[in-house]
Amino acid sequence: MSARAVAATLAIVAGVGCGRGERRSGEPRSSATHEQLESTTSSDCAGCHGAITREWRGSGHARAWLDPLVAREYAADPDPSCVACHAPRTPPGEQPEARAAHDGVDCVSCHVVADALVPAPSLARSEACAGCHQFRFLPVDASAGLAYDPEAWLQDTYGEWSRSRAAAAQIGCRDCHMPLVDQAGEPHRSHAFAGMHDQALVASAVRVGVEARREGGSVIVEVTLRPGAIGHAFPTGDLFRQGVLRVWTDERESAVDEFVLERRFAAQPRHADGSGGYMVQVADTRVPPPGVGELPRVVFRLRSPAAQRVGWSLDLRATTSDPPRPDDPRTRVAAGDVAIE
């Protein structure tokens, strides 16, 4: 969607012409007033951008506030910063009303900033995504108990990408998450915003290598994980997301062994009596961004003397509970089985 098209849409909605008004730093501006922009909804944009609006309506951006995991986390810790990214049309200090909750991150959220239209070249840069996908832990008083270090990143997705081979090759966020599509003769960047619930995208993110050999009455399983078509760590985003690697044998009573790909935190007390202080990251077992860090190599030992084959699976799990709940969403990354050598 070009900046001129956005301007035309908003101007039509506002009932004014697409005029030749003020320009700031060469960037187009809407001729609509602040009040008119505030009342603009994504439904208003559908008249000229029907395919794009339909894609967005089914996306995680549109469900950003109504997502069950977001609701669960916000109920446990109702911090205003959650509203700023998950329902950005909500006035500061208020709770999302019906429209802001229903639309989540809508057209105006990204395409209009301070009553100015954001031009397409600006939205093409990965920096445009950093506002909601790169931020630190909130500063809180840790004197009475443990809190996460406010100097550490809660979400480091943009930072991971900026250090990766993908950034060096100028492959940005939109190349994976907003690919070019053509619906009904309307070529555009997809606004379905493919992410962790897109099975095809997730399946392309990691390459899994599995080898199994017999050692006495046990089976040794070695798993190597490499970044695939991905520009950041796997998993990325919220610190509660996990990659869950499982292995088992074809014996009837075989147990399932599990390894979790995640950021791991531990308490670092501030006082001699162990009180106060911060939770700090002590390990990162995730698949690193391409070209960054050491690749995970996980070794399992399964007690299974009569086994002939080893099965395995890798899932992406979104959770806010510890231990994870059975109804936490999962997306299958890959699965298979190998013969025991």
From TrEMBL:
Pfam families referenced in this protein's UniProt entry, alphabetically: Cytochrome_C554
Domain Cytochrome c-552/4 per the UniProt entry, residue ranges: 45-111
Listed InterPro entries: Cyt_c-552/4, Multihaem_cyt_sf
Positions of the UniProt region annotated as Disordered: 19-43, 314-341
SUPFAM superfamilies recorded: Multiheme cytochromes
Name this polypeptide is given: Cytochrome c-552/4 domain-containing protein
Organism whose genome encodes this protein: Enhygromyxa salina
Lineage, uppermost ranks: Bacteria, Pseudomonadati, Myxococcota, Polyangia, Nannocystales
